[in-house]
Amino acid sequence: MNLTPKQLEVVKLIRECRNINGFSPTMQELADELGVSKVTVFERVQALIQKGALTREPNRARSLSIAEKFDASIDTPVRFPLVGRIAAGMPIERCQDNETLDLTTMFGPQIGQRGETFALQVDGESMRDEGIMDGDFVLVKKTSVARNGDRVVALLPDGETTLKTFFKESNGNIRLQPANTEFQPIIVDQCQIQGVITGVLRSY
Length: 204
Description:
The structure is a single chain. This protein is of the alpha+beta class. It has 3 domains: 5-71, Orthogonal Bundle (Arc Repressor Mutant, subunit A); 77-107, no CATH class; 117-201, Umud Fragment, subunit A (Ribbon). Helices cover 24% and strands 29% of the residues. The strands form 4 sheets. The protein has a 7-stranded antiparallel sheet with strand order 7-8-13-9-10-11-12, with no helix packed on it. Strands 1-2 form a two-stranded antiparallel ribbon. Strands 3-6 form a two-stranded antiparallel sheet. The two termini are 25 Å apart. The model has no long low-confidence stretch (mean pLDDT 80).
């Protein structure tokens, strides 16, 4: 079942409320928690019901519940066997057979955080020297703040979005630094940080 990050957030909030309080949240409580309108929550819930992720009893308050089969799969991690280290061809240190590489732990939200992680596909070569190539996918933790040296997704005053390294200059300007000498830094008075890069994925 394919859910959007925003739909998955609704499901997890419903489950959290049921686990803590013993009953489901109201539409208004969901809206308040997510910081969106009640209409928006209603649309997401309806989409989840149509997908079979949620069920609801008509004309009954707090009747939202998570479909049993779907509930068991919400937190299924993405893991691969970790079989060793490799340098120029030959494994130089073998890991235990039961070790795994857990992508959920590496790139997902940390315990106690509600930050949403989303993916973008890179279009261009401006970050090439940092190993972020055209066609790669970057995983982005949604946030509005960044520290010097963070690789960020930034919304510029002209409405364009760019992936660059963030620096706050001493004069108050923001420098968005590419990692390719063929591109010039972008200097702006202000920009809107939409997220910080947490990982890069590439398939062959």
